[in-house]
Task: inverse folding
């Protein structure tokens, strides 16, 4: 039975009824971390419920001291609820009218105070979630720049964004997703910049999610709101850097924050959002452009180098005489395409093994892979030297891709091209490359063309992708997000 079909129970005035409800529905007395503290204040019962590990004990002690002091400094009052409310020394005290809401708040880390004879409870925010302190993400390192990054606490993540955008129009709408997990999910955007239709779509999609829980956090949210299917290419961008998220908010994007996840979701995004990196904007425009072009070359290499080399091996006549040295010079009993696939999957095995290998053993694993496996495999004739060379270059190109999701998708495209070239040679390369291009052009995310600004072509947007422009020259926000306010700087300075 879903919660929509459950009856909404108001908070009873009898504390014994509340305690009975907690024992029957929440496991009070069974779960060791769920507890109740009972007081006698002005001859009336006062209870507060809490979850050990999610609350800050120092705050609770201060609240307890304030409640106990009521007996010493206050006279018996007919309205004990108001007295207790005034003595709760905390910046966040809110009334609660239903038992269901009360349970949700307690399990979220707040403490809830109930007073005998009152049909309203008081929720006090004393949350102190276990987690890391902000630190630089391993996957988005920069030479120069901030070293703080998002963590698993949604409150800290929104605070890191607020620190960079101190604007009264910055909005963080929060809601809970998951019938059982009740995970906090926030939508971050600039009210006067973001497309209201996009905000409404995301809000509607999040509210429509019906699932017991989202332990995989942001990835589960993505699968629900996008329904990606078997398309391997990422339709949203993830980032763990607060400066990148803030930059996209200022451009007019909408950011989705999910509690327990150290990364946020940027919407909408195109293919070219996944090939940019913060390092480009920490260098001079010329240097940033050089780094960007180098990255583009690495990404193209990761997709097309191996299929193109295999095509030249299978059809040497396509090569001019000056490049006739390209291709294996020695004979082998194993087809070249099989060697490429084996070596390519070998790199994938090493990458997976590196994730699961403890750090002290990772160096030893690298030596085993490079010296023993690679060299011996060549000596016994399993691989020719050129295969190892081009697979290694292609692998380096994969690692130049800033987005991990995009690098995996490009690898799937590369393997598909390899198979088509091995079967159909030149027609396979041409048809495969064309189908890959058509697939990217036809893909849309939140009704946004995935290959913008290349197709549909927009000159200004295309130039900003090709060249890293100086910030003083970036007057307009990207049109792809349909911003309500196009100008980032006064238009008279253009």
Result:
């Amino acid at each position: 039975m879903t919660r929509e079909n459950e009856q909404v129970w108001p908070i009873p005035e009898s504390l014994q009824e509340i305690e009975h409800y907690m024992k029957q529905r929440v496991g009070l007395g069974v779960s060791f971390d769920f507890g109740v503290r009972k007081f006698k204040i002005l001859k009336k019962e006062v209870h507060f419920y809490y979850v050990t590990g999610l609350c800050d004990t120092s705050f609770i002690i201060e609240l307890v001291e304030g409640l106990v002091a009521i007996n010493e400094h206050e006279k018996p009052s007919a309205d004990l609820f108001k007295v207790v409310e005034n003595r709760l020394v905390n910046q966040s005290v809110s009334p609660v009218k239903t038992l269901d809401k009360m349970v949700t708040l307690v399990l979220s880390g707040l403490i809830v105070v109930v007073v005998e004879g009152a049909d309203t409870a008081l929720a006090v925010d004393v949350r102190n979630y276990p987690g890391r302190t902000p630190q630089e993400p391993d996957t988005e390192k920069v030479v120069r720049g901030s070293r703080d990054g998002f963590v698993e606490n949604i409150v800290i993540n929104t605070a890191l964004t607020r620190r960079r955008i101190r604007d009264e129009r910055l909005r963080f709408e929060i809601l809970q997703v998951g019938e059982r997990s009740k995970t906090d999910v926030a939508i971050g955007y600039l009210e006067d910049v973001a497309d209201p239709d996009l905000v409404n779509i995301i809000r509607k999609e999040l509210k429509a999610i019906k699932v017991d829980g989202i332990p995989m956090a942001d990835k589960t949210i993505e699968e629900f709101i996008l329904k990606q299917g078997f398309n391997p290419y990422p339709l949203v961008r993830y980032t763990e850097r607060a400066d990148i998220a803030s930059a996209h908010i200022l451009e007019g994007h909408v950011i989705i924050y999910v509690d327990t996840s150290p990364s946020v979701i940027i919407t909408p995004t195109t293919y070219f959002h996944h090939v940019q990196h913060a390092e480009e904007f920490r260098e001079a425009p010329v240097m940033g452009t050089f780094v960007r072009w180098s990255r583009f070359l690495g990404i193209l290499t990761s997709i097309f180098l191996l299929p193109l080399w295999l095509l030249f091996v299978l059809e040497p006549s396509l090569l001019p005489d000056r490049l006739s040295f390209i291709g294996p010079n020695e004979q082998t009993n194993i087809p070249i395409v099989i060697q490429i696939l084996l070596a390519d999957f070998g790199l994938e095995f090493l990458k997976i093994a590196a994730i699961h290998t403890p750090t002290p053993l990772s160096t030893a694993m690298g030596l085993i892979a490079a010296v023993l496996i690679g060299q011996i495999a060549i000596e016994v004739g399993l691989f020719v030297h050129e295969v190892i060379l081009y697979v290694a270059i292609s692998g380096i190109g994969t690692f130049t891709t800033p987005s991990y999701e995009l690098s995996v998708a490009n690898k799937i495209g590369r393997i598909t091209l390899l198979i088509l070239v091995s079967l159909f040679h030149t027609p396979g390369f041409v048809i495969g490359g064309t189908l890959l291009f058509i697939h990217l052009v036809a893909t849309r995310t939140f009704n946004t063309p995935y290959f913008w600004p290349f197709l549909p072509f927009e000159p200004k947007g295309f130039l900003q992708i090709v060249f890293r422009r100086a910030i003083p020259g970036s007057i307009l926000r990207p049109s792809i997000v349909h911003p309500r306010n196009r100008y980032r700087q006064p238009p008279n300075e253009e």
Summary: Residues 35 and 50 are 6 Å apart (CA to CA).
